[in-house]
Structures are given as C-alpha cells and as structure tokens.
Automatic annotation (TrEMBL):
Belongs to the class-I pyridine nucleotide-disulfide oxidoreductase family. Gene3D superfamilies: 3.30.390.30, FAD/NAD(P)-binding domain. This is Pyruvate/2-oxoglutarate dehydrogenase complex, dihydrolipoamide dehydrogenase (E3) component. Keywords: FAD, Flavoprotein, NAD, Nucleotide-binding, Oxidoreductase, Pyruvate. Binds 1 FAD per subunit. Coiled coil: none annotated. It comes from Bradyrhizobium canariense. Transmembrane segments: none annotated. NAD(+) binds at residues 182-189, 205, 273. Disulfide bonds join 44-49. The keyword tRNA processing does not apply.
Length: 463
C-alpha cells in the first residue's frame, strides 16, 4: 500500500457541490484534494444539464426554421446535420472543462483523476487513471458521487444496449425512430428535441400521466404540446420485454388498457429515473450508512453517520438539480466556518426545458390538498399575455397558489414561454415574504411575460 497522504479537506467527486467546496476550502488555506474518475466539473457540464440544453437549443433553431414562413422568412429545403449539432455541443463542453481546470489551478485544490474507494474511515485508495494508486486521508471528507441512469429490470432491455442521456447526447447520427422509456424530465426534454431534429419519437410511461409530480392540468398541457408536435405518447403501460439492439432495430412489447402492443424502433433511450453511485466503494468500511433506496443517509446539515464526513448532491438524496447540489455546498461550508445552515424548508425551484418550458416553485395544488393546506388558486392562460401574442407563443398557462386566509404566496407553476424567468420573479417575492398584492400592484415593464403576474394575481378569488 502506498504511503497515506493527508489532506485537511478530501472530496470524492467533482460534481457541483464538491468542486465549489474544494475551491472554497483551498482558497481559505486548507490543503484540499478532489478525486474524480472522469467528469471534470461533474455531470452537469459534461453529460447532463448543459449538453442537453445546448442540443435542445439546436432543436429550437430547427423548429424556428421549420416554422420560419409563419414569421415572414422564406426558406428552402432544410435538414439537421447532427455532426454540427455535436460539434457545437462538444466545443461548449471542452471550454467548460478548460475553465474548470483553470479554477482548480487558481484555487490551489489538487484534482486527482482516478476512482476512489474507502479502505478505512476517512481513508481512500485511488486507482489513478494514469496507472498506479494513491492512499489519501482527510481530516474532513465530503462525498459527492452523483447518480447514473437506472436500467429497469425488463427482460431484454440491458441486452438491447439502450442509450442513456450520456450516449444519446453523443450521437452524431439521427435515430430514425427513438423509443423513450420514461416520461419524466430527461425523457420529455430529449423526446421533444429529437422530434424537432427529425426523428420519429414514442414515449412509453408506466404512470398515468407525464411528469408525475405535477398537477393534472399541467401534465395535460404537456401532453397536448408533445402530441401536437408528433410525439407519440403511451401512458399507463407495463413494458413486457424488449428485443433487438439499440442503434440497429429494437422492438418493445407492452401491455396497455387496449391490449398488448409492440413498438418497432431504431433506438431506445432509458430515462426512467436514477440510481446513486454508492455501491462497491466501501462506504460501509467508512462507517457511512445508506438509506433504504441506496442514497447516503444524512441529517439536515448533510452530516453522514461517520463523524467528520459529509455528503453532497444527488448521492445524499438531495433533490436532483444542480442548483441544489450548489446549495448543499453552501450548507457545508457555512457549517464548517461556525454557521448553522440546514436544508430544512429550502424553497427549491425547477424548470423543465421543454419548449415552452415548465417551471415551478413551492406547492402544487395536489400537494396543498395532500398536506391539508387551504389555498386560493389563480390561473391565467398564456394566450392572454401580450408578449406571448407578439412572439406567437401562446401555449400554456400560469397558476398561483395563495394561502386561503391570508396573502402569502405558497406556489407558482407556469408552462409557457420564459416560464423559468417568470417563476424566479415569484420565487423572489416568496423569499422576501412579499404578499401577493406586491406583485399584483407592481409596475412591471411592458411587454414582458412577467408583466402578466399583475393580471394573474388579480384573478385570485376573494377570501
Ligand atoms: C439529461 C439530464 C439533464 C439534466 N438537466 C438539468 C437541468 O437542466 N437543471 C438542473 O438543475 N439539473 C439537471 N439535471 C440534474 C443534474 O445534472 C444533477 O442534479 C447535478 O449535476 C448535480 O449532481 P451532483 O453534484 O450530485 O453529482 P455529479 O455532478 O454527478 O458529480 C458526481 C461526480 O462523482 C464522480 N464519481 C462518482 N463515483 C466516483 C468514485 N468512486 N471516485 C471518483 N469519482 C467518482 C462522477 O464521475 C461525477 O463526476 C439533469 C440530469 C440529467 C440526467
Ligand atoms: N431541467 C431539469 O432541471 C432536469 C432535466 C433532466 C433531469 N433532471 C433531474 O434528473 C432527475 C432524473 O430524471 P429522469 O427523467 O430520469 O427521472 P424522472 O423521475 O423525472 O422520470 C422518470 C419517469 O420514468 C417512469 N418510469 C420508471 N420506470 C419505468 C419503466 N420501467 N417503463 C416506463 N417508464 C418508467 C417514471 O414513472 C417517471 O415518470 C429528475 O427527477 C430531475 O430531478 C432535471
């Protein structure tokens, strides 16, 4: 065994929270190392958020071009060159990796490329990517391992070598018919994008609706939007088996309420949720306990069962968003410097980058009902928003929840153009504790999408 090297802060995984913690600790003078097996900067800039949003924007351009005539621009025959789509995306990812390396260098944190495994409490052995091993110990250890796509236990699926988001976002050819297993975030964003590039796309979802966490009016709007673009959606099905090989020919047999059906496709994408990267790396040896789903068990301060060991991001069971992994960093760094920050009562917003996007902060109607919280609900169709008329993007609606007996905003959902930006305006009001009347009565620039918040909150039923 190599001689152990000691660090004041040792971080496993260069994800969002892990890298910020490393840079922060190193800059404040602590000897810090990060061990990363592959993705410099984690999955967001390499394989997940940013590459997907990059390709989704290429698909948006394709959609603009397909409908250019509507806006008065005359085009001839058009086609999507997936090699160029890939080239733009790869260029962005390479730039990000270079920037991350500069930030590592400037911070003084050592980035060690290799796979970590615990061999004793607070002690890891790293199998270096360049060969050889190093043994590292940390006075404090943070674990930021992330997740990978779950491959459901369906006969023939694994043997079909299905695509996950990682492989799909690396394809430089267009699938002729892409079968998408799962109608959640990954499935919906990528199904729409590949449809716009020109693939035939079929979504197969076990649940009764798309985006299962959302209210039924929201998911009905999503469904209509996707079907209008020619995406075929199968809901409430049981997948029986998969045959063939993704990239060549693949068939999926499913049980539906109308009987058994088979879909023949060229490729299959698995987008059926995530599995934490917590197995086989000696977390038991480190004294780090997992919960029943295999995520690292943490308290509100993100402390694990092992003293001096924290967990960050998806592997810690935090909501699966980059901005949450970043907030996990803020919790840990605050607590390491005498603060008392917790993840309790965090207001976690999100935006699904379908087009138009779906954004939410706070409660949905169904959640309010489940929690027995009485609310007043205001709705406004996006078609009523003047800005939406100017850009011919009138699909969707806004919905706000306000406490029944007061003026506190409890939730906001929007499906429509610029939903993420409009939602953030409402989130800011919620964080400031501003009554809904503050937004209702504000002067908001005309014509913006956020201007419609005045009309939305004016629609609220009286107490
Ligand atoms: C297709 C897709 C699109 C998404 N889009 C969005 C979006 O638009 N917005 C959003 O907020 N979220 C999005 N997400 C979710 C988001 O990517 C994650 O929540 C986010 O990256 C946070 O991850 P993390 O910090 O927990 O871990 P990660 O960033 O995954 O980092 C974990 C790191 O640990 C490394 N690692 C694992 N095991 C070891 C080991 N034993 N030794 C060394 N290194 C190891 C991994 O290589 C990885 O780099 C998307 C997810 C997917 C799949
Ligand atoms: N824009 C964003 O912020 C963004 C984008 C992509 C992913 N993400 C994050 O990544 C997480 C993972 O995304 P995801 O889409 O993999 O998971 P998800 O949980 O959002 O959706 C998975 C879907 O697959 C369905 N499913 C499960 N097993 C199935 C099966 N055997 N056959 C058919 N359908 C099946 C589920 O019912 C569910 O609807 C998300 O929850 C989200 O937090 C965020």
């Amino acid at each position: 065994m190599s001689q152990p090297e000691h660090f004041e802060m040792l971080i496993i995984g260069s994800g969002e929270g892990g890298k910020y913690l490393a840079w922060h600790m190193a800059k404040s003078g602590r000897r810090t190392a990060v061990v990363e097996r592959k993705l410099i900067g984690g999955s967001c800039p390499n394989t997940n958020c940013l590459p997907s949003k990059n390709e989704i924007w290429s698909a948006k351009v394709a959609d603009f071009v397909h409908h250019a005539g509507r806006f008065g621009t005359v085009t001839g025959p058009t086609a999507t060159d997936m090699k160029q789509v890939q080239a733009r995306k790869r260029g962005m990812v390479e730039d990000m990796i270079a920037k991350h390396l500069e930030l590592y260098k400037a911070s003084g944190a050592e980035l060690i490329m290799g796979t970590a495994r615990f061999i004793a409490p607070k002690t890891i052995e790293v199998e270096l990517n360049d060969g050889g091993t190093r043994v590292l110990t940390g006075e404090r250890v943070a674990i930021n391992l992330g997740t990978h796509a779950t491959i459901p236990d369906i006969p023939g699926l694994a043997a079909a070598a299905p695509l996950t988001n990682v492989e799909l976002l690396e394809l430089d050819r267009l699938p002729e018919h892409l079968i998408v297993l799962g109608g959640g975030y990954v499935g919906l964003e990528l199904a729409q994008a590949y449809r716009r590039f020109g693939s035939r796309v079929s979504i197969v979802e076990t649940g009764p609706q798309l985006a299962g966490r959302e209210d039924s009016d929201v998911t009905a709007a999503l469904l209509e939007m996707l079907r209008d673009e020619g995406v075929v959606v199968h809901l409430g099905v049981k997948v029986l088996r998969v045959e063939g090989r993704s990239g060549q020919a693949v068939s999926l047999q499913m049980r539906t309420s109308a009987g058994d059906q088979t879909i023949e496709g060229s490729d299959i994408l698995v987008a059926a949720g995530r599995t934490p990267n917590t197995s086989g790396i000696g977390l038991d040896i480190a004294g780090v306990t997992l919960d029943e789903r295999g995520y690292i068990a943490v308290n509100d301060r993100l402390e694990t069962s092992a003293p001096g060991v924290w967990a960050i991001g998806e592997a810690a069971g935090s909501p699966q968003f980059t901005h949450v992994s970043f907030d996990d960093f803020r919790i840990i760094s605050a607590n390491l410097t005498g603060g008392n920050r917790t993840k309790r009562d965090r207001l976690v917003p999100y935006c699904m980058f379908t087009d138009p996007p779906l954004a939410r902060v706070g409660l949905s109607e169904a959640e309010a009902q489940r929690q027995g919280i009485a609310v007043r609900v205001a709705k406004l169709p996006v078609a009523a928003v003047l800005r939406a008329q100017t850009i011919s993007e009138t699909r969707g609606f806004m919905k706000a929840l306000v406490e029944a007996g007061g003026e506190r905003i409890l939730g906001f959902t929007m499906i429509g153009a610029e939903a993420g930006e409009v939602m953030t305006v409402v989130q800011a009001a919620m964080l400031a504790g501003m009554p809904y009347t503050g937004l209702r009565d504000a002067i908001i620039a005309h014509p913006t999408m956020a201007e419609a918040l005045g009309a939305l909150f004016s629609n609220l039923p009286a107490r």
